[in-house]
Amino acid sequence: MHLPRAPRRRAAAWAAAAITAAAVLAGSTPAFARPVDTATAASGKNTGAARIDSAVLDTVGRGQESTFFVVLKSQADLSAARSKRTHEDKAKSAFASLRKEAARSQTSIRSYLDKAKIGYEPFWIANAVKVTGDEQLVAELAARGDVASIRQERTYKLDEVEQTAVAGASLSTAADPEWGIKDVKADQVWSQYDDRGEGIVIANVDSGVQYDHPALVGNYRGNLGDGTFSHDYNWYDPTGQCGTSGNPCDNNGHGTHTMGTMVGADGVGVAPGAKWIAAKGCESSSCSDSALLASGQWILAPTDHNGLNPKPEMAPDIVNNSWGGGDTTFYQDIVEAWNAAGIFEAFAAGNDGNGTTCSTAHAPGSQAPAYGVGAYDVNGKIAGFSGFGPSLVDGSAKPNISAPGVNIRSTWPGSTYKAINGTSMATPHVAAAVALLWSAAPSLIGKIDETRAILNDGAIDVDDTHCGGSADMNNVWGEGKLDILAAVDAAPRSAATVTGTVTAEATGKPLSGMTVQAQAGTAKRSVTTAADGTYKLNLNADTYTVQVSGYGYATSTEQGFTVTTGEHVTKDVALDAVPAHAVSGTVLDVTGKPLAGAVVRFVDAPLDAVTSDSQGAFRFPVVAEGSFSLTATPTAPVLCNGVFKTAVAVDGDETLTAALPRRTDGSGNSCAPTAYNWVKGTTKVALTGDENAKAVKLPFPVSLYGVPYSTANVTTNGLVNFLEPRLGDYSNTPLPSAGKPNGIVAALWDDLTIDSRASVKTATTGTTGHRTFAIVWENAAFVSATSNRVTFEVLFEEATGAITLQYQDISAASPETGAKATIGIENQAGTDALQYSFNEPVLTDRSAVRITTKATS
């Protein structure tokens, strides 16, 4: 990250290092950053030491641990991405450069943390590593030559003013759009240019979105039509607040509101023809650094629902950020990465103004590389809360532009509408205005500087220079009031307009939801047909391959479709219906047995999912011919069953076997039931009591999530903890969990006690190179009912690195058959895990589960 560097010093204690304290909104009042102590810096102390956030110093100085980000000095070179021609090429290049540099430059510090038995979470978009540690760790990390700064993990509040509804009339209609839409002249762009943002994808990083809101569901990119959805690459929840269903949610309302202002139907959205996707970067009314960084990565390279298989080619064109706080450059790398990838970003300038005081805008909207947005009301008066410049971060003029942000009606969870205030409400007006601009002038897509210049030139000047600047650009209004009609009027006229209607060949019936895609080289634009089968595409002058496709119809492809600047072309397409057939089969679990209750669906066809019966059988009676992706997903208890995925070419009645693979975690560890082969404990561990832990020496190195260990800590509560001999971990949790314990094998994690009738033993069997090390809990009692006892063990294999969990006497402890326990493994940062079960009665006597690790041959 590009945090400002303090002057170099000679030698001194790390605690005397220059401090750049990044502020955070702990409530409605911001905490301002303390400047670098230039007098101390000039004294010549502490040569080369990393800057340490004062909040970290305060916490570890009290003998407590702090969770912080270690920001590395090395930065990826994004010049190649900026030079690419298309948005997709820019995104792919930026993604590759960022990942490559993070992998290279983080190798040393990750190796250091591994050896020190310290968990961490790496990020590539900011080249930072999240760590939790004490004073000594902070000192050691600050002394490293590759570390630029150490910054405490913070949480940003969504401002209270934005959570207060204001009185207003009933919802406007598309015929009478909201006042903000009319004020920025978006409705005139609709009428004069027949442009509603078609072919553009907008995202937000916010509190989530009610994806099936009537005003939003139609243009959600994950909407397959006929009520089915695919959330892969369209929705991301790093907070985990939306549960295990995988469906988008909004437990606050803020994100649904901002999305509605961008793309909502019925007169609430500036660009109702654009598609949308979303990342939940805010847990609820607050947004953590970790969730925001993870969301920033996902925006540049969206992933599937497991957070895997990133695809930068699926990145949105535009991202709205109605959050912020403090005066820090911590997110500057994200902003610059998005810009290099051709993703237009807009940030709220903040709600800490009072109508007079200058320098009240906050980061990231107050950072020079970001496009910050102020707010005004229906009377054209700047909002009393709108943040003013100049920036406390870097002295830059802020905001960049202003937009409607008072009494803004938009969508709200519960399929309702609400009017609220804030620069958060102004920012999506700007983000969606860019969708209108790029839809009308596709030659601008991915060109951030050119787009900003056109928006700035088109803005209506407001002369208020009391915070500095001029009538043309000042620290109250920025460039002035957003005028998207003027921007579109001034945009380069390099586009041809292609319109038409897609119908069924046999009946002439208009077809909705059909995809019309035009591609020239790597440049692609696509739209879906409206309810009446019509579509509209603005294309740069070029020669294209045009494909029209949709479920139930044969794809129409035309190559050599040439358009010229300013041309208006009508291209109607009639599609032939294809025959339909039955698709049936059987779902088998990871052991090859029929599995009931599995959910089988075509992820890219508008067909309702079906569930396998008691014999594992499933059937789709009518599936149109074509090539589709089919999945079979187990329902609880999932155990070791993974998700089956396959491509199905339907050209007749099809029968298939959906053999579920082993379930894997993000690191590639997997599990499966295995043959029971009990290893008897021989050496007693001095471990007794209700809450206790003892370190045991391992006869050979044992690897967990790629980190080798020579010792492990065994607890009375059925845990093997590789990081520390923690006590008091009697309350088991699901895995993964950021809270400690981390870096564990949970053989049977529950509130257990080792009394006089119980023991913990170890044993080593086999010959060097092929040994097995066993940790055995014999006759352990449940604290809640000591008459219930269990015997279980964990086996570590030297040759393969596999971990086996075995259960000798478990059913006799009825009802304690795992019904209150956690079983599985978790990485050192609590960010990845392979959980076999949590509070599920799934264990049986003389059973075993083998976990195949990354090191397993």
- Helicity range: 10-25%
Strand content: 25-35%
- Given the helix and strand composition, which structural class is it? alpha+beta
Largest sheet: 8 strands, antiparallel
Count of extended strands = 47
Mean pLDDT: 90
> Count the helices. How many?
14
Task: Report low-confidence residues grouped into runs of 5 or more.
Answer: 1-47
Overall geometric form:
globular
Radius of gyration: 29 Å
Question: Ends: how far apart?
Answer: 39 Å
Provide a descriptive summary of the structure in words.
The chain is of the alpha+beta class and 857 residues long. The protein contains 14 helices and 47 strands. The strands form eleven sheets. Strands 34, 35, 40, 41, 42, 43, 44 and 47 form an eight-stranded antiparallel sheet that branches. Helix 9 links the parallel strand 10 and strand 11. It is globular, with a radius of gyration of 29 Å.
Brief summary:
The protein is built from 14 helices and 47 strands.
List the helices and strands and how they pair.
Blueprint: H1 38-41, E1 51-52, H2 54-61, E2 66-72, H3 79-83, H4 87-105, H5 107-115, E3 120-123, E4 128-133, H6 135-142, E5 147-152, E6 155-157, H7 179-183, H8 186-193, E7 201-206, E8 223-225, E9 228-229, E10 235-236, H9 254-263, E11 275-280, E12 286-288, H10 289-300, E13 318-321, H11 332-340, E14 344-348, E15 372-376, E16 401-404, E17 408-412, E18 416-420, H12 423-440, H13 448-458, H14 484-490, E19 495-504, E20 515-520, E21 523-528, E22 534-540, E23 542-550, E24 553-563, E25 568-570, E26 573-575, E27 580-588, E28 599-602, E29 610-611, E30 617-624, E31 626-633, E32 644-650, E33 654-659, E34 670-673, E35 683-684, E36 693-704, E37 707-715, E38 719-721, E39 744-749, E40 752-753, E41 759-765, E42 772-782, E43 785-797, E44 803-809, E45 822-826, E46 833-838, E47 847-852
Helix pairs in contact: 9-12, 13-14
